[in-house]
Amino acid sequence: MATQSEAIVTQASEPVAEAAVTESSGEGGADVSDETVSAYLAEHATEIAAEQNKPFQPVGGMDMIGKAFAREVGDLIHYGAKVVKITQDSGGVAVSYVDSKDPAAIQTAKADWCICTIPLSILSQIPLTVGARMKAAIDAVPYASAVKIGLQFKRRFWEEDESIYGGISFTDLPIRQIAYPSSDLNRGGRGVLLGAYIFEGASAYEFAALPPAERIARAVDFGSRIHPQYKDEFENGVAIAWHRVPFTLGCAGYWTDETRAQHYDDLCQIDGRIVLAGEHASYLPAWQEGAILSSLDAITRLHERVVKM
Amino acid sequence: MALKRAARTFHISLCTSAAIVAAALVFADGGALAQSTVSAPPGRVPSSGFQFSETSGETLYTNVCQACHMPDGKGATGAGTYPALAGNQNLAAARFPVTVVLHGLRGMPPVGYFMTDDQVAAVVNYARTHFGNNYSDAVTAGDVKAVRQ
């Protein structure tokens, strides 16, 4: 097992790192000073992070997964289409949509089958020819609030000053957590933190209601109480509040034990020629993994249905 | 209760695969932590806890509701629509907005979960007396409590 260390931030004016070396590093078990620990962490940052950073992360971030899909099947994607109606009968499915830039002209796409991944926050407002139980399920799922704020700094002070390589600081401040990048360790120069990641609870809504510049100012202020270096090193930031994103109207489907029991199976059924998929039709809400597993499951069941017809 | 359990599960599943090398728990005891040398930015301060700290209908609307329903109460439309509260006839029966705030409605989350009965009453009364609405039958915390069951 790799050498592990725990950095415990005490309520002092400067963070104090106490390292517990659980496996002998070969130095004969001598006392280790803070400087030695810091130097060790700096030197072995990449392997420590690689050792403990499971699963792997796409180079360039999670966004690369969606971009890879666009690269592979992009010629099939019709961008900027706002669906306004979905109807089906024994012969097929018709999806009516408008170009979001020119909503006057309604166009129609027809096919034998439809796999619909529209978030339920929006799908619940679209006229849809499905049975009552699926419609009730679509209408039963509220969308959770989430906010993320990225902050750019002139230097990676969390590595240079604190020996923090990747990982998360959890806090009861309204920002809830600060996450440190696990790539380009010790690169030097600018770095970007996730300066807030808030889901549900009061501040997830309150940050969404703030103007973007105020969200960032607030995240810098709160974060500076954990890392005083913020004030000198902060350069700029970006904030996303999922309820303010027009094509999703919320972060993810918010299921309870009751609604899972009452509606989840109904949501996932093949209704005539229509089947739903997405993170909301999975047991991993808000995760790409849930969306992908849901899609594989929906396609598998649809294929069986089609083959048996 | 079920909502709280789901919230805990939701939290854990979002963090499970996070790379935790150095996990630091920091508690916001301002006196003991390093003090920032610059004063806090002006404007609205988000609540520290899970519950909303605002008390008046106006601050609740401004700090929470208007993110979706907009400052003028006219709602907004993207791929779907946040309904307007301005001139919305569904507000005529007070119990309806109380129910929506407490229990949600389709995509709208049950934000009343993070509010006391008094806060729900305050924000519903605010919506029903602003944005061109002028309903005089105010709801009380007791009315909210009856719907929350």
The coarse overall form of chain B would be globular
Radius of gyration of chain B: 18 Å
* Whole-number mean pLDDT of chain A: 87
Task: Label the CATH architecture of the largest domain in chain B.
Answer: Orthogonal Bundle
Query: For this entry, what is the oligomeric state of its chains?
Result: heterodimer
Approximate helicity band of chain B = 25-40%
What is the CATH T-level topology of the largest domain in chain B? Cytochrome Bc1 Complex, Chain D, domain 2
Gap from first CA to last CA of chain B? 12 Å
Computed CA radius of gyration of chain A, to the nearest angstrom = 24 Å
Task: Strand order, main sheet of chain A: write it out.
Answer: 1-2-3
- Which residues of chain A sit in consecutive blocks of at least 5 with pLDDT less than 50? 1-30
What's this entry about, in short?
Chain A has helices at 34-43, 45-52, 63-73, 120-123, 132-138, 157-160, 202-209, 212-224, 230-233, 257-268, 288-308, and strands at 81-89, 92-99, 102-111, 114-116, 146-153, 168-171, 177-179, 191-199, 234-241, 274-276. By secondary structure, chain A is of the alpha+beta class. In chain A, the strands form four sheets. Chain A has a three-stranded antiparallel β-sheet, with no helix packed on it. A three-stranded antiparallel β-sheet of chain A has the order 8-5-9. Chain A has a two-stranded parallel ribbon with strand order 4-10.
